[in-house]
Every structure is written in C-alpha cells, then in structure tokens.
Design a protein that fits this description.
Protein name: DUF4149 domain-containing protein
Order of helices and strands: HHHHHH
Helix content: over 70%
Shape: globular
Number of helices: 6
Transmembrane segments: 45-66, 73-90, 110-131
Keywords: Membrane, Transmembrane, Transmembrane helix
Mean pLDDT: 95
Organism: Thalassoglobus polymorphus
Number of strands: 0
Length: 132
C-alpha cells in the first residue's frame, strides 16, 4: 500500500470522529444514563473516551507515519494488524447493533451507511497492508 493511501485512510478514520461526537446527543445519553449509578455513567464516558483515543491514534499515525507504514516493516504490519482487527470488529458490530430506531432522518440513515463503508474500507485497507 502506498503512503498516500495511508494518508487517505487516516483522514477517513478521523472523519469517523464527527459522527462519534454526535452520538451522545442523538442517543440522549444524559437523560438515558441518568438512572444509572454515578460510577456506571462515568465508566460509560471513560470507555467512549478510550474508543475516541484509539481512533485518533490510528488516524494520526496513518497520516504522520504514512511513509514508514508503506515500507511494511514488522512494526508497520503489527500496527496494521491492530487497525484491521479494530475496524473489523467495529464492522461486525454493525450487523448486531440495533440502530434502526435511532435513524429517524435521511441524513442519519445516510451517515450510518457512510460509516459502514468507512469501517469496511478501513478493515480492507489495513488488511491489504498486513498481507502484502
């Protein structure tokens, strides 16, 4: 895979963060999580923060270390294996998450399908980098 493809992959991944920023509002986290004990609410946000950190890390490394990743060293392949697994698991969750009731507008439906495409592309591109 070329370094330019890694840059595009990084930008795609960082684009996922726009949708991630909308999730707490679209899913009414503040109201829906209010009945839970405080620790449960806090852990929910901590877990979300770690996912965001993972996406930021994957995206930024793809952009700033694109040349190194394209060289295909053992470390590059290890990083790409992590990216492939990260996005592959997220892609597989699309099949079991019950998001349909929350896709109330055409824009939300389009965004959901666009995210699915990004998850698929990310999994495939990281896979190409691992197995080439």
């Amino acid at each position: 895979m070329t370094s330019q493809m890694f840059v595009v992959l990084g930008i795609l991944q960082l684009g996922v963060l726009f949708a991630s920023a909308l999730v707490p509002f679209q899913l009414s986290w503040k109201e829906d999580l209010a009945p839970l004990p405080k620790l449960h609410r806090q852990l929910f946000y901590v877990y979300g923060g770690y996912v965001v950190l993972g996406i930021v890390t994957l995206g930024l490394i793809c952009i700033v270390a694109a040349d190194d990743l394209a060289e295909g060293s053992l470390l590059a392949k290890a990083f790409c294996t992590y990216g492939m697994l990260f996005w592959g698991v997220r892609l597989s969750l699309q099949a079991v998450l019950e998001a349909k009731p929350f896709l109330t507008t055409s824009l939300l439906k389009l965004g959901y399908h666009a995210l699915t495409v990004v998850f698929l592309l990310s999994t495939i591109l990281f896979g190409i980098a691992v197995f080439n």
